[in-house]
Amino acid sequence: MGETVRLTAAQAMTRWLSVQMTGEGERFIEGVWAIFGHGNVAGIGEALHGIGDDLPTWRGQNEQTMAHAAIAYAKGCARRRAMAVTSSIGPGATNMVTAAALAHVNRLPVLFIAGDVFANRRPDPVLQQVEDFEDGTVSANDCFRPVVRYFDRITRPEHLLTALPRALRAMTDPVNCGPVCLSFCQDVQTEAYDWPEAFFAPRVWHIRRPEPDMRELEEVAEMIRAAKAPVIVCGGGVIYSQAEHSLAKFATRFNIPVIETQAGKSALPQDHPMNYGAAGVDGSAAANRLAAKADLVIGIGTRLQDFTTGSRTLFGGAKLASINVQPYDASKHGGVSLVADAMAALRALVNALGDYRADTADPRARADWLAAVDAHCAAPAGGNELPTDAQVIGAVQRASTTDSIAMCAAGTMPGALKLLWQAAQGGYHMEYGYSCMGYEIAGAMGLKLAQPDREVLCFVGDGSYMMANSELATAVMRRIPFTVILTDNRGYGCINRLQQGCGGEEFNNLYKHCNVEAQPQIDFVAHAASMGAHAVKATGIPDLEAQIAAARTRDIPTVIVIDTTAAPGPGDGLEAAGHWWDVAVPEVAGSEKLKRAYAEYLGHAARQSLAN
């Protein structure tokens, strides 16, 4: 038997995590976000203090939002690096469940280390313990089970010998990548064990690049060779595969236009001649026209979410070939699967397609669309009208550089940005798998940590800001600069528009339609400034552009508040933008407006494909 070292379970965990490396010689787990409580302060807290800068610890303000920061960091690193998040038992742990679901849906790695009850059960029920009357093994942490890729409850120290490698395997697996939860009983954290020294030898984790099956490759190649009007749908898997340049070469060589999902946007810069913009519900006229007339849709690294497919009405009778590292995604919508890493598949297809050339590309349609976007986003000519979201986006676009990254998560802005933002390569970061309100500010902080040399421009509505803003204080404390563009339309303007679009009446979304005694008059500038951020209210579009430029000189977050109108949607006034989205309408209607909305709904629903 080899040499051993006696450590507590928590000390062993932190030591092991500190020597898990990437192929580039960096720690895979960059550090640990922590809010301590009675379930983790004595065990994990002591261990983190002891290991010091070998595994840095950062304090957040809320368990959910510090987890959002960790998730944004992993997304900003294209899943090549990640962070851990630890909490106490009870509410600290369940606060992280929403973030775990966000990471699960978006296939992003994060390590949740949730404090748990006593394994020995001597003091049960302890403070914050959730008791199940029929199952003595249940705790609040069982809420994580459906929203993580791997779950383990650590009830003995030596469980870590297998649990930790399994956790990193899940987080570095391109097929099953996602969050992990180690539910760490608080007494076990402090228990000692004689650990093999070999357990703490540094280990390098390489991201696999699965090659395509030759039969599947030939089937998809034959579909492409037979297609007259193919179109590529670019998903986030292109970015996680680091296949951006491979996609650009492939699309150019074979003259196949590329249309984008939220996760895939900026894999090709907007100025690439084969980039026709956003697809689907929040899609461009050029992209959706290509999709509607396509005879073959080639999905690359996309899970084909309803916004991309127009709730299964956009692609009509086109055949579908789906390139994806995850077989579950590759087989969606009755498509022909090519299960492989995106870069490996594209390289193999180049050899299989020979001198094939499509005739789908329409440069004039692309140029017309981009000209329409410029006009739609132009500064207002004058008057006292509140600016639209498009005009705000236009101002930020004009003030941005090729190093800027636009980021967002929920509300009107995700659809508007996907439709209108003209990204440089890698200049777009959107959490739209879960579209979680409150991700934005914490996510901007995590993204800036992942890409410190790029400017982060965080778009957030007043509704999302009110849900989660406290990590501004963390960013101030740590001197992490980013710019927040806070658009104030005095409520949930996005859902107010959806409510009306579904035939309903304006109700409970904008403050003026709520059952309140008086509309709140929230001073967002004073609020952000109270946490130490530089905060200012833009007097209009020209001032917004100037304030964005000025923010680059600071080493703390800048919050720029601008009042906007709640009226127009992302594509209003932009010809042929967008597509139908399936949001169910009441079958029994109390108004003529609702009856018309239901009749229109039935017409769209009749066109839906029911393929699996």
From TrEMBL:
Domain (Thiamine pyrophosphate enzyme TPP-binding) ranges: 411-562
Whether Zinc counts among this entry's keywords is no
Q: Name one Pfam family in it.
A: TPP_enzyme_M
Which GO molecular function terms does the record list?
A: 3D-(3,5/4)-trihydroxycyclohexane-1,2-dione hydrolase activity
Q: Start and end of every Thiamine pyrophosphate enzyme N-terminal TPP-binding domain?
A: 60-129
What SUPFAM superfamilies does the entry give? DHS-like NAD/FAD-binding domain, Thiamin diphosphate-binding fold (THDP-binding)
Output the superkingdom of the source species: Bacteria
Q: Where are the transmembrane segments?
A: none
Coiled coil region boundaries: none
In this protein, which residues make up the domain named Thiamine pyrophosphate enzyme central? 217-349
Query: Is Transferase given among the entry's keywords?
Result: yes
Query: Which EC numbers characterise this protein's activity in its record?
Result: 3.7.1.22
Q: Which family does it belong to?
A: Belongs to the TPP enzyme family.
Q: What is this protein called?
A: 3D-(3,5/4)-trihydroxycyclohexane-1,2-dione acylhydrolase (Decyclizing)
